[in-house]
Amino acid sequence: MLLAIPFILLLALIVIAPLTMPKLWHHYYKHTAITLGAGVGLYYILYEAHGGTTTFHTFWEYLSFVLFLSALFIASGGIYIHADIQNTAKNNVIFLLAGAVISNIIGTTGAAMLLVRPFIRLNKYRIKPYHLVFFIFIVCNLGGSLTPIGDPPLFLGFLKGVPFFFTLNKLFGYWVLAIALLLGIFYLKDKKDENTVDGDEVKASNKFIINGKRNIIWLAVIIGAIFIDPNLFPSLPTLHIEGHHYSFIREVIQLTAAVLCFKFAKQSALTGNGFDFEPIKEIAFIFFGLFLTMMPALQIVADFAKTPEGQAMFTPNTMYWASGVFSAFLDNAPTYLNFLTAGLAKFGLSIDNSQDVIQFANSENAIYVIAISLGSVFFGAMTYIGNGPNFMVKSVAEHLEIKMPSFIDYIFKFSIIYLLPVLTITFGVMWVMN
What we know:
Elements: H1 5-20, H2 22-47, H3 51-77, E1 80-84, H4 89-122, H5 129-138, H6 152-160, H7 166-191, E2 207-211, H8 214-224, E3 239-241, E4 244-246, H9 249-263, H10 267-272, H11 278-306, H12 308-313, H13 316-329, H14 332-346, H15 354-361, H16 366-378, H17 388-399, H18 407-433
Antiparallel strand pairs: 1-2, 3-4
């Protein structure tokens, strides 16, 4: 438990420091994240059994994560989308619904980076924090629950053997319910603001402009490269370390695409988006600390999940809430894997045997996979750190001088009030149907 203190400390600083000492935190957050993360990593290497392997695996996951996020950030930054349409609650709902659909095609991270700036421009005369919060709810999280491409936990499940169309077949009804409820809440809230702006300021030409279309090709390359995985293609040049497989091909392609698309991007598109590297730098430092310091926290969850007590406690109902709560404050991808491992182990199956995973997903026990998938993806929207795109949207918005809710305000003024009831209704439907 003591090893979890650095993670708790870093999490507390992310929550409290921007409110109580903003200038000091802005200056020293990089040093703090690196020191805490490196300290835990060094301890694991020196004192924990297989600690070097665990640290290397975690650092590789972090590197893959931040390279992918950086590549998407750079590629999308060179695509200037301007929807010069009337800013109404109805059009905002249509935009968010489109974003939810697109997130299943290019991932929540890709959709968030591509659409957050156009969404801000669409609402430029009356942008409020709730606009960005609901964007995070819908586009950055819940929207991407229909395909393995949509959200990292689902992609990891696919790599382990969960059928590609499992999420579309099993989660579609929950997706429709949750998205419809959130869009309905957003519409009622946004409708109140619709007439608060002078009509002369918001006349629209109804033109839809895309500048920097060539970057869409780079975006496709970056997203397509996520499938270049040694678990899918064993013939790739691969490092084999204690049961884990590492290949650098995907990361090299994504990094190369990022460099080339930035070098050849249209300057007018970059300027129009107000592009610079500060938001992605913040993500890189903060998540370095989070990835490494959360190792002990995830290990505690994994160890309990494998015990007889843990397995007895884990039912589909408890797995929905447990995977959800941990996904809100830990990385939702490893949380998903830990709970999927526990669910399989309960029935004598192994996460490392793809046939076991396929059998599990296609049996009457599929409800466990449904519960874990919903919990991990949906609850990622509960906090800024539940899913990578959440923090990215916050950083982009703040860089554009839009005041975003603090970590605490986000949870208590938005997540608990608007999102949690939707998650509870979704659970109720899952409980009744299964």
